[in-house]
Amino acid sequence: MANGPDEKDEDAALRARLDALSSKLDAHQAAPGGGDGSNPGDGSQPGDGSLGGAMSLGLRVMTEFVAGIVTGALIGWQLDKWCGTSPVLLIVFLTLGTAAGFWNVYRIATKPTGRGPL
Amino acid sequence: MAAEQGIDPIHQFRVEPIIPIHIGGVDVSFTNSALFMLIIVGLASLLMVFGTSRNALVPSRLQSAAEMGYEFVASTIKTAAGTEGMRFFPFVFSIFIFVLFSNLLGLVPYAFTVTSQIVVTFALAILVIGTVIGYGVYRHGAHFLHLFVPSGVSPLLLPFIVLIEVISFVSRPISLSVRLFANMLAGHITLKVFGAFVASLLGAGAFAVIAPLPLAMTVILTGFELLVAVLQAYVFAILTCVYLNDAIHPGH
After folding, report:
1. What is the DSSP string of B185-234?
2. Peptide bond into A87 cis (omega under 30)
3. Where are the domains of chain B?
4. Other Cβ atoms closer than 10 A to B232
5. Surface-to-core class of residue B43, CB atoms within 10 Å of its CB (0-12 exposed, 13-18 middle, 19+ buried)
6. A98 vs chain B: nearest CA distance in angstroms?
7. Nearest of A83, A66, A99 to residue B177 by alpha carbon
8. With an 8 Å Cβ cutoff, is A66 touching chain B?
9. What is the pLDDT of residues B196-217, one digit of tens each?
10. Cα separations (Å) of B40 from B25, B35, B37?
């Protein structure tokens, strides 16, 4: 019973330390690219390096943009062939496809999925 | 590689039948492409079977490689599609390993690059999108269509937005397949052309002095192609995860 207050003090100190550590951990996990569940040992993954990440991002943006336009043009062209309204639908869907291409790029830019620049 | 007179950088992509098979007028010959796909699957299976046969606490090189592959794909899925995405782990892992092995194997001289055929990459992309649609409809039913209807858009604009979203969705398999195919095709043609420069400069009398220049370029490009091969496999895998995430959580 003599060392009661001592134990209490130790408990309080321990709890304070745990709180500080957990708040630190939260801050680290909230930081961008800090704690996304991956261990720090996998820093050499492709897409993480500055050159690799930038290159893959650039290629992704380019193909997404082009694919939107091409898809719109193909849909319009095929619908024109079916309906015999050439070239009205081609023009309409080419415009929509370009918008879709920009939309793809916009989505990549605003909502980064995965890690880092990807 | 290309020391013949007429150097044709496209020749390496020709699909040639090894065992011609015709069933009911359909050409299902066993080609060099099919042969290399079998080699890829065999190599990947060997890596996994021997890498996991002895579960040592201190892993051997092979076991280390297999475990790194597993952890890499697992962390990719968890970051892009959440813990629920892990039910697609076998699918994503198979696609990643297949694309990675075919890209890397294609860099070996005289090897055939399976992923430089748009039929192969498009089949992979359609498989991914088919899985997304199939699982999305199975899991959410008609609610899956909310993927195309973003919330908070004025009713006046909604038809256009929905059309644009549909086109954007349809363009996914195209961009997924064309990216991989074009990267592999362009890289291998560039390598071949620089290799051909070396050969023709050597045969051009005094100009043979500058032949080492394209040779050095070929060496640099080979290293660069190694980076592209791994990177494209990674991009294919992470985009698969992103699209699967749409199937698991539609409606942004």
Report:
1. HHHHHHHHHHHHHHHHHHTSGGGGGGTHHHHHHHHHHHHHHHHHHHHHHH
2. yes
3. 12-248
4. 25
5. middle
6. 9
7. A66
8. yes
9. 888 888 888 788 888 888 899 9
10. 29, 9, 5
List pLDDT tens digits, range A3-31: 555 667 778 888 888 888 888 887 777 66
| Residues B154-200 pLDDT 10s | 888 888 889 998 999 999 999 999 999 999 999 999 998 998 888 88
Pick among A61, A64, A102 to test the B interface (most B CBs inside 10 A) = A64
The length of chain B is 252
**Residue A2, token pair as written in the block:** 């003599």
B61 burial level (CB within 10 Å; 0-12, 13-18, 19+): exposed
Tokens at B146, concatenated: 């909310």
Structure tokens given for B107: 């860099």
Complex-level ipTM: 0.74
Are the Cβ atoms of A96 and B183 closer than 8 angstroms?
no
Q: Say if residues B10 and B113 touch (Cβ distance below 8 Å).
A: no
